[in-house]
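Board notes (copied after class):
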Amino acid sequence: MRGLAFDKTQELLGQTGAKKIDGFVCLDSASGKMVSDAIKRANATDRLLVAFDVNQDTLDGIKGGSIDSTIAQKPYTMGYVGLTALDEVFHAPPPHLDKDFGADSFSPYPLFVDTGTSLVDKNNVDFTWHQPPAGSK
């Protein structure tokens, strides 16, 4: 399947000299395969591709060597942390929900929650899966 990412990558791969593109970073889960396909088609083995998320096409690209690595989010953790926080607010609400918790140094809630990411490359791609943890649906 050709798409905008494929076409734009082919255009950029043709640039030489100071305009040569040495690497590509995909910021969505779908474009990694398209950019990888364009790089393979152009036989541009000297280019680096970093993808985003862990869909099967991306993992296959890492195993095959056409994608260097990908940044994996943690969707299960995101949902778990978010729902746990909502449950706490529902069952044990703070005295004032109209406060600016971002400015309150005694806020019971963080302003930002980082649920983490991980780098998946050829060294750990076989340990990455798409299956939810046992017991979750």
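Comment from the instructor: Residues 75-91 form the longest helix (17 residues). The two ends are 31 Å apart (CA to CA).
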